[in-house]
Design a protein that fits this description.
single chain, 3 helices, alpha+beta, about 140 residues, 5 strands
């Protein structure tokens, strides 16, 4: 499935997002999982997020995760071979054609774009303002 999913960032949400995205390329699942896990690890469990997956219209699939903290920006780290964390964004950067961050006054969206796999592309979304679920 594609579209938009609002949820609370907790560890059990990661497999739920993967299930929601079943049928997509494994790289889409990996990127969505890693971007959501970054919110859990760096902003904390219970953070409201919105996950979006859609076709860009230029042969790419875009994965976005929006959270309510525009100041906590992701950093691409070089994890050592024995590090237990610090590889998520490096994985995203390795499989995505490009990635970045969009900031608003009360949110940020971390996104990446991957080549569309063979088969139907997810629909392009209508113009939207990033939203998060209210708790």
């Amino acid at each position: 499935m594609s579209g938009e999913l609002g949820l609370i960032a907790v560890p059990k949400a990661v497999p739920e997002v993967r299930q929601w995205l079943r049928g997509h390329d494994i790289d889409v699942l990996l990127c969505a999982s890693e971007l959501l896990t970054n919110v859990i690890d760096h902003l904390g469990e219970g953070t409201p997020v919105t996950v979006r997956v859609y076709g860009t219209g230029s042969g790419r699939v875009r994965v976005e995760v929006t959270d309510p903290d525009p100041r906590a920006l992701p950093v691409l780290l070089s994890a050592s071979g024995t590090s237990e964390s610090g590889r998520g964004l490096a994985l995203v950067a390795a499989v995505a054609e490009r990635w970045g961050v969009e900031q608003g006054a009360a949110y940020k969206t971390v996104w990446c774009e991957l080549p569309a796999c063979d088969g139907p592309q997810p629909p392009t979304p209508p113009t939207h303002l990033p939203q998060t679920v209210n708790t």
